[in-house]
Amino acid sequence: MSDTEYGQADAGAQSKRGGPGLIDPIREQSDFHRLESKVAVAGHPIHAMLVAFPVAFVTGTFGADVFYWWTGDLFWARAALWASGMAFLFGVAAGIAGTVELLWVPGIRQRSASWTHFIIAVMLLSILGANWGYRLGGYEEAVLPYGLLISTFAVGFAGFTGWHGGKLVFEYQVGISSTGK
């Protein structure tokens, strides 16, 4: 067999192993493909159900800050206070559910993308807590400029965290697989 024929015949085997003659030891573990959710209601992962709320409240906080800056109406500063608090509280609830999934499901725990998502999400929770805590001392004075700045960071981190979470779901099928493959 020539080198060209050998390369073509071995191409399929190489892609499964990760390269020429290489075997990925993580993929070879029996639990690597166990990705089904353990914290679920009727098969629906609680983390995925809860995560929409902090994302919406983060966006709402940013929007309320912008509207306060634009209109000067005290309503928007008060709305941003409530939205930032709910973003943090729902974020903690989603974080608890996600952390339990990360620690209990071996296939999730073995993927580096899961840990990246976890670390960025914890950083986002820190920003959300700071945003809410900063506003508790006086929500009207807190909006400009630092409240708006923190809200902008929160929106950016929420997008980055959500992108990584979506990658886990859509690329790796985390939380939606019901078979042990």
Task: Please outline the helices and strands.
Blueprint: H1 3-17, E1 40-41, E2 44-45, H2 46-50, H3 52-71, H4 74-104, H5 106-109, H6 112-136, H7 139-170
Antiparallel strand pairs: 1-2
Helix pairs in contact: 3-4, 3-7, 4-6, 4-7, 6-7
Q: What are the key terms here?
A:
181 residues; mainly alpha; two-stranded antiparallel ribbon; 2 strands; 73% helix; 2% strand; disordered N terminus
Going by helix content, strand content and strand pairing, the class is: mainly alpha
Range of strand content: under 5%
What distance separates the N and C termini? 34 Å
- Using DSSP, what is the number of strands? 2
Element order: H for helix, E for strand: HEEHHHHHH
The major beta sheet can be summarized as:
2 strands, antiparallel
Mean pLDDT: 85
Strand order of the largest sheet: 1-2
Count of discrete alpha- or pi-helical segments spanning 4 or more residues: 7
Gross morphology is elongated
Could you list the spans in which at least 5 consecutive residues all have pLDDT below 50? 1-15
Pfam families: DUF2231
Protein name: DUF2231 domain-containing protein
Keywords: Membrane, Transmembrane, Transmembrane helix
Region (Disordered): 1-22
Structure description:
- With 181 residues, the chain is mainly α.
- Helix content is 73%, strand content 2%.
- It has seven helices and two strands; from the N terminus they run αββαααααα.
- The longest helix has 32 residues.
- The protein is elongated, with a radius of gyration of 22 Å.
- The N terminus is likely disordered.
